[in-house]
Amino acid sequence: MLKCDSMMRYRMLLLGLLALAWLSAGMATQAAGPDLGPLLDAMGILRPVKEALAPEFTLPDLAAKARRLTEFKGQVVLINFWATWCAPCRTEMPGMERVYREMKKDGFTILAVNLLETAEQVEPFVKELGLTFPIFLDEEGQVSRLYRAFTLPMTFLLDRHGMVVGRALGGREWDSPEAKRLIRALGTR
Q1: How far apart are CA 32 and CA 49, in angstroms?
Q2: Which residues contact 117 (CB under 8 A, 6 or more apart)?
Q3: Please, which pLDDT band fits residue 188 given cuts at 50, 70 and 90?
Q4: For the chain, first and last CA: distance in Å?
Q5: Rounded (to 5) percent helix, strand, coil in the chain
Q6: 29-185: what CATH class?
């Protein structure tokens, strides 16, 4: 039994190190553009090594309606991977709600992709925090795997053309002045 536990811990550590290596290799510290570099740096957001379109996905929302990422083309999109049990997720959600309410009229949206939980688990959390942005359910984890969201929260920022501008590992103050400047710089109206 002890040997099995040790082997399992070793495998989990190895998987964690591989995920960290992938994250490090997949993101560069070069500026995304002359205007965005300092804004991304101020938020601690990692930039892609090369320009890439965000992978398309379809997931049910809390009303069980199938929603596609392409529905939000033309908007600046913040895709946030989260779970109800994730303390940093709970901490950053109120700020996300404030920036969503303030900037949604300007062409900004948040897509909160819940990882591996059901609507019955998610709805009380959403109600408690008064969240109004779209909540998607990734009950099987297929979209989280597609985006390689191995850490929660993990957030991807997309420009109005659906291009990935950057990725944030861990919680952020999405309603901070720096975050709002970044969102505006990405082309909100």
Answers
A1: 9
A2: 83, 84, 137, 139
A3: low
A4: 60
A5: 45, 25, 35
A6: alpha beta
Q: pLDDT at position 36, please?
A: 87
Tens digits of residue pLDDT in 59-105: 999 999 999 999 999 999 999 999 999 999 999 999 999 999 999 99
DSSP code per residue over 22-52 = HHHHHEE-S-SSTTTHHHHHHHTPBEESS--
| Unique residue bearing structure tokens 């946030």 | 80
Domain coordinates in residue numbering, the chain: 29-185
3-state secondary structure 121-141: HHHHHHHHHCCCCCEEEECCC
* Burial class of 158 by CB neighbour count within 10 A (0 to 12, 13 to 18, 19+): buried
Structure tokens given for 25: 């290799």
Best CA proximity match to 155, nearest among 101, 85, 76, 98: 76
Contact (CB, 8 A) for 152 and 124: no
Number of C-beta neighbours around residue 49 at 10 A: 12
- As a whole number of angstroms, the distance between CA 121 and CA 127 comes to 11
**Among 53, 56, 79, residue whose Cα is nearest residue 136:** 79
Number of H helices, E strands in the chain: 6, 9
- Angstrom CA distances, 105 to 65, 178, 184, stand at 23, 19, 12
